[in-house]
Amino acid sequence: MRVVLTGIYNASDIRTGPEEVAVSVFREMQKMAETFFLTKFSMLKPHSFWQKLFGLKQEGNLYYCGFLRMPFLVKKLNPDIIHGINYHPFVGLFFLLFSGSKTRLCYTVHGVVAYENSRKKYLTAYFRFSRRVTEYLVFRYAKTVYLLTEYTKKQILDYYRKSEAEYIYTINGIDPETRNAGTPMRFQEKKMRIAAVAGLMDRIYGIEILFDALIGTGIEFELKIFGETEHLIVPAPLRGKVKIIAKVSHKDFIEELRSTDLYVCLSLFETFSISTAEAMACGCAVLVSDKAGISNYITHNENGLIASPENPSEIRKLILHYYENQEELMKIGAAARSLSEMFTWGKVVRDYISGYKMV
Question: Which architecture characterizes domain 176-341 according to CATH?
């Protein structure tokens, strides 16, 4: 079986969740199938306009291609499978070009772009329309769609009425290096160390809910927020207790998780947060939204905490309870670490290959 993965490939150590999936799946799939990765040439800098259209650079089975060069390279590789591993507008156009071929087209959904863009107020009408058109092409021609949560399928049907594809539910994985990061460091003083990741507007909303929950608790805490927080305003009562770290390497992020008591992900919609799974692998207790895909694997008060992001008082009660019962929280963190052992990239790739073989 010959597989071409396509999407955004970020070789740096600072990556988004979907970019982490691309890198990890490519690495793991090469062990199980003949695999190539095609990404846009403009991921390399500097580059000229000519290179963006016709450029080509090969690093093993990884190809950086100009947009107009890609179709010819794919035809030369003659794959059985083209798999859009994360979203970029060129993936939709790619699917359109190969929609009439015998190659099976597959796509992994990390989030429905039309929904995510509807949550952003600063986008132009052209940007929203163009992204929706290219995402429509992805769902129009994909024969197999990989999902991380049932809610994602509902969103796809709401926006695009796509129901003919094979839908396969899978997970995200965790790198072995994260599992072997060392012994977690917990509650070294009477202060709760809390961490969260910003980025998407839904995550920003979740952090604002966390702010509401923390105000008035009277507890000693430190909240570290990782990622871009352009639209986030820290309330006055929390200033001095909140630290924003806009950019952090993966290695340093894992080290931070090792000294975190509670990791919080309260977004209104989250497919399967890799950072949450990584926190669990580091032995950190996690508090997640009941809307998050990873909540399907968590048993409340046993190997994690689940709360509604629309109920700050419920979140406040949980934080206060576990601030006073630190040993219970550490037991939950240890149970979370055991649960995280099921989140492997090998399982993800085996799920993908099972979907490839469907007729």
Answer: 3-Layer(aba) Sandwich (3.40)
For 102: left if phi > 0, alpha if psi spans -120 to 50, otherwise beta; the answer is alpha
Q: How many Cβ atoms sit within 10 Å of the Cβ of residue 119?
A: 14
Burial of 236 per CB tally in 10 Å (0-12, 13-18, 19+): exposed
Q: With a cut of 80, say whether residue 241 has pLDDT above it.
A: yes
What is the distance between the alpha carbons of residues 321 and 317, in angstroms, rounded to a whole number?
6
pTM score, whole prediction? 0.87
pLDDT tens sequence across 33-71 = 999 999 988 777 788 888 888 999 999 999 999 988 988
Fold of 2-173+344-356: Rossmann fold (3.40.50)
What does the pLDDT look like over 164-175, one tens digit per residue?
A: 789 999 999 998
Distance between CA atoms of 80 and 104, rounded to whole angstroms?
Answer: 6
Instruction: Calculate the alpha carbon distances from 144 to 7, 104, 108 in Å.
Output: 16, 8, 9
**For the chain, how are helix, strand and coil distributed in percent, rounded to 5?**
45, 20, 35
Residues of the chain with CATH 3.40.50.2000: 2-173+344-356, 176-341
Q: With contact defined as beta carbons under 8 Å apart, do 182 and 258 qualify? A: yes
Looking only at Cα atoms, what is the longest distance across the chain?
64
> Looking at residue 249, what is its pLDDT?
86
Name the average pLDDT for the chain.
Answer: 89
SS3 sequence of 137-161 = HHHHHCCEEEECCHHHHHHHHHHHC
**How crowded is residue 155: how many other Cβ atoms within 10 Å of its Cβ?**
18
CA distances from 156 to 112, 160, 191, 253, 278 (A): 7, 6, 43, 32, 27
